[in-house]
Amino acid sequence: MSGDRMVLRELAFDAASNLQALRGRTVLALVGIAIGTAAVIAMLHIGYNARKETMQQFDVLGIDLVNVTPRSDGMKNAVIPLDAARDVAAVGVGVIAAAPFILTGTSVRIGRSSLQANLVAATDGIYSLAKAEIATGRRTCDLDGFAPFAVLGAVLTKDIAASTGRPVRIGDQISLDGQVMTVIGILASVYSNMVLGLDLDRSVVIPYAAARRLIPSPQITNVAARIDIANDDTIVSEKISEYFGARMRGGGVSVQTARQLIATLDQQMRIYGLLLLAIGTVSLVVGGVGVMNVMLMSVMERRREIGIRLAIGARRHDIRVMFLIEALLLSAAGSAIGTVLGTLTGWLFARSSGWTFAMAPVALPLGAGMALVVGLFFGSYPAARAARLDPIVALRSD
Q: What family does the database annotate (predicted)?
């Protein structure tokens, strides 16, 4: 057993020396394998971290959220009545809390600084549904009525402070599309809510009734709701659609639940993953062809050496193993480089997206597995060709 190990070790050293001698061709083959491996490994890391980050957001915000939006029937605009939106939690359709809101864009001006932001005119239930906490001051509420009060998101507050050169304080006045509003609160940072389409960090929240100060004819754009998690969200969605359809003057509503969004995101991630996997596979095939080319050239250039080995007693199996080891070393080096590059790419993508990077569990095993597969598959033919050489013909070659 120890003798076999010594033979394999000698073959490995010999294979490394031969690959080093080929230099240019070896580097080209390494680049092909490294690119293919990096594409696959990066895909694994990006997909894993994107899903982890998405699930983390849903863990914080809840998987029981529902977003209801008006849907026109083509004849006239769909309008959700305010009373219907407020009462949906009390009619037994599976909704336990609801908050209508108007979402649009606005221009925030304070002093000489002007910034673009989201305007959210909402009833006071929006804070609990969006899991938004107040860092300073207080929330807007329904009792504020038409009062010119505003609550600023965390990122918007920092942007205003950077523009004006001083921190935003409670009681400061800002101008929203020409209307002067008083800052009564600042929100703590909160995840962007994919279900509700809300990015409160970059938003100004005002009382629902105060929307008339800024919008000539304000209409509900969304109804945020929370459903009983024990209910089937498909059935609840149908009941919500029927409820609003019977109370709207035109059109109906579209209902999207958190679970439906998760399923959609999973499907999209799977599609993107398959695309990246296809790109990586093509690159690996190109790299594998490079390995085969290097091995074939090595066989051609070393025919005399192969003939001598066969003539002095080497078995054809030994010749085959010798070239397979070279192919495995070449593919292992390329896969190792590709695994490092793919991991670095995944880390950079996560960092640029503001995510916390985590290693995909299957990345390292897959990197090693690809090295084995590429080496064995694309190195088999050159190794078999070397093993079939006639020693007499090989010894006559120059």
A: Belongs to the ABC-4 integral membrane protein family.
pLDDT at residue 6 greater than cutoff 90:
no
**3-state SS record for 309-344:** HHHCCCCHHHHHHHHHHHHHHHHHHHHHHHHHHHHH
Using the predicted structure, report yes or no on whether residue 223 has a pLDDT greater than 80.
Answer: yes
Strand ranges inside the chain, DSSP E: 65-71, 95-110, 113-122, 134-137, 149-152, 173-176, 179-187, 203-207, 222-227, 252-257
- Give kind and range of the element (H or E) at residue 11: helix 2-22
228 CB-contact burial (10 Å; exposed 0-12 / middle 13-18 / buried 19+): exposed
* Closest listed residue to residue 52, CA positions, set 395, 349, 317, 305: 349
Question: Where on the phi/psi map is residue 197: left (φ > 0), alpha (ψ -120 to 50), or beta?
Answer: left
CB atoms within 10 A of CB 267: 10
- Report the pLDDT averaged over residues 73-88: 84
What tokens were used for 90? 């009390």
Confidence tier at 1 by pLDDT (50, 70, 90): very low
Residue 239 pLDDT class (50, 70, 90 cuts): very high
Instruction: For residue 320, give the amino acid letter.
Output: R
CB 309 within 8 A of CB 318: yes
Q: Phi and psi of 128, rounded to 5°?
A: -70, -35
d(CA 78, CA 141): 26
Containing 365, the helix (H) or strand (E) segment is helix 363-387
pTM, two decimals, is 0.70
The answer to whether the CB of 385 falls within 8 A of the CB of 296 is yes
Above 90 in pLDDT, residue 138? yes
User: Distance between CA atoms of 210 and 196, rounded to whole angstroms?
Assistant: 21
Helices (H), 121-245: 126-129, 154-164, 233-245
How confident is the model over 343-384, as pLDDT tens digits? 999 999 888 888 888 888 888 887 778 777 877 888 888 888
Rounded to a whole number of angstroms, the CA Rg of the chain reads 32
- Classify residue 200 as exposed, middle or buried by CB count within 10 Å of its CB (0-12, 13-18, 19+): buried
